[in-house]
Design goal:
By secondary structure, this protein is mainly α. It has three domains: 4-66, no CATH class; 79-162, Orthogonal Bundle (Arc Repressor Mutant, subunit A), CATH 1.10.10; 170-221, Arc Repressor Mutant, subunit A (Orthogonal Bundle). The protein contains ten helices and eight strands. Strands 2-5-4 form a three-stranded antiparallel sheet, sandwiched between helices. The protein has a three-stranded antiparallel sheet with strand order 6-8-7. Strands 1-3 form a two-stranded parallel ribbon. The longest helix is centred in the middle third of the chain and has 22 residues, at 87-108.
């Protein structure tokens, strides 16, 4: 009788399981490395078995979600932007943007510029070969489906995407509509807005309390821009 453990698929899952044994003992970066390596190895060598098993597929999808890894089956496969039949592609791309937004929000706050999203996506989803219009199109899809609260300054060059619900006051909307870089001197914003100091202080404090701005002496940072 053939030893079940000699099956290469069983060996791969056993090796992955052994790696996960230390999963809770390491830091976040190492956790991601262990999971990413194990998932990539299994997907590379056993794609047909994964596709034929809903249990394994669901298990891997759950692990992927923990590290914001691509939800697409076989995440190392090249994905190219199509010229026709784009609907499914845009939906998949929107899902990927939604996944990576969790990491970005932790680092930059709940409002992210289109440029920030594009840069991060290209660095972390190297198997996606996207065109310039793809990400704006996917974000529009998220907005239409009400999966994100809103888009501010909606234009090709300076869109700001709100990923978590925030009730912005009128001054905050005005300030966010004029910024196009991630740091300003306080006096620079005063001149741009033509406000008094008290009004600008109040607006910046509101944005800081909502995780959108960071104040460092006289410099105001907008990490998500």
């Amino acid at each position: 009788m053939k030893d079940e453990n000699s099956n290469p698929k069983n060996q791969a899952f056993e090796e992955f399981s052994n790696q996960l044994g230390n999963y809770t003992k390491v830091d976040e970066i190492e956790k991601k490395r262990i999971l990413k390596h194990g998932i990539s190895n299994i997907e590379k060598n056993f794609q047909s078995q994964i596709n034929s098993s809903k249990i394994i597929n669901s298990y891997l999808s759950n692990l992927k979600s923990q590290i914001n890894l691509s939800s697409i089956s076989n995440s190392s496969k090249k994905i190219r932007s199509p010229f026709i039949f784009r609907r499914k592609y845009i939906q998949n791309l929107a899902n990927e943007i939604f996944l990576i937004s969790h990491d970005l929000i932790k680092e930059n706050g709940s409002i992210l510029s289109l440029c920030t999203i594009k840069t991060y996506f290209k660095a972390n989803r190297t198997n996606w070969k996207i065109r310039d219009k793809d990400i704006p199109e996917a974000i529009d899809w998220l907005n239409k489906k009400k999966l994100i609260p809103s888009i501010l300054n909606k234009n090709e060059n300076n869109s700001l995407i709100v990923f978590t619900p925030i009730e912005l006051n009128s001054d905050s909307n005005i300030l966010l509509s004029i910024i196009d870089k991630n740091q300003y001197e306080f006096t620079e914003l005063l001149n741009l807005l033509n406000w008094n100091e008290k009004r600008l202080h109040s607006c910046i404090s509101f944005l800081q309390n909502n995780g959108i701005a960071v104040i460092d002496n006289t410099i105001i940072y907008f990490p998500g821009i």
